[in-house]
Amino acid sequence: MAACLRGRPHRLFGLVVPGGRVVAGFAALRARKMISKLHICADCGRASRAITSIAATMMCVAVTLGAATTTPVHAQSFTYNRPATRPKPPPAAQTGQMLVQATEVNYDYNNSRVAAVGNVQMYYNGTSVEADKVIYDQKTKRLHAEGNVRMTDADGKITYANLLDLSDDYRDGFVDSLRVDTADATRMAATRAERTEGNYTVFQNGVYTACAACKDDPKKPPLWQVKGARIIHDQTEKMMYFEDARVEFFGVPLAYMPYFSTPDPTVKRKTGFLMPGFSQNTNFGFGIETPFYWAIAPDYDATFSPRYTTKQGLLMQAEFRQRLMDGAYQIRAYGINQQDPTAFGASSVSNK
């Protein structure tokens, strides 16, 4: 399952092509930049559109399966406070050089350990660590920090935690009671996170959202958030996997799913299924649509959107878009073989 930074395809609600004919439309050149048609809230970024698509999918599945009554996930209760002022980037330093500033610094020659206590600021390998106490073991090359920990990496990601224990290259270790604010405004929180091989990060009892905190009351739950017993981030594949997940809107659980995956916020376009659509119409009856997005190339893509209706059969829809040097164009095509050609006053039209 995948979501992407693009608009929903045109929805042909209430329209049937008599006699199985095909209707195609050609849109004139428009602005240079394709503007996404899907907007949820002004404070949410592109990750909001992607995860909202997944959320809607989960809700549809939950309604179908009756999963709304399933036992809720045991994720921690969490509200997003207003983010603190983003600190300045760590000062440039040579690889392997550690800069430490603290109220007290002690060096244990026997065990090759450096212990810094009181308003500690440490800069190492492009990352800054601030805490009440920091211990660096030169033998094991492990960094241990505790008490009001704030770690800022070179990409601008800030991790707040009570306790942190990582290798000095930050590829392996764990963090307890953490909150993560990324540069693209997505947020995560968990009771514990474990990182391995510099690629996989597993969040235990995690919460994820891409919505900003409410301006009037930052402690209120965000517009939407996803809680999971485990959230696994694969940095190489740029994918996030949710286990025992629950979607909440304004803190109210609306859907449950044992497992689903979605691209991480760094992914702009990805081939896969989009949010399914449901409709109800007097002439059509009930309908379900499952769009499939195909990211063919950086400058063009296609969407295929078959919709099955209970009264008129299968309606096929397709959209092709391409961005040019001086603008963009799109082509849309629709076709159906009606089950009841007389439903729209087209009794004289053959259904062949």
Quaternary structure of the protein: single chain
Overall spatial form: elongated
Strand content: over 45%
CATH topology grouping of the domain at 98-263: lipopolysaccharide transport protein A fold
Describe the structure.
The protein is mainly beta and 352 residues long. The protein has a domain at 98-263: lipopolysaccharide transport protein A fold. The chain is 6% helix and 48% strand. The chain is built from one helix and 21 strands. The strands form two sheets. Strands 2, 3, 4, 5, 6, 7, 8, 9, 10, 11, 12 and 13 form a twelve-stranded antiparallel beta sheet that branches. Strands 1, 14, 15, 16, 17, 18, 19, 20 and 21 form a nine-stranded antiparallel beta sheet that branches. A hairpin with a 4-residue loop joins strand 11 (224-234) and strand 12. The radius of gyration is 26 Å and the shape is elongated.
Task: Quickly list its features.
352 residues, mainly beta, lipopolysaccharide transport protein A fold, 9-stranded antiparallel sheet, 1 helix, elongated, disordered N terminus, disordered C terminus
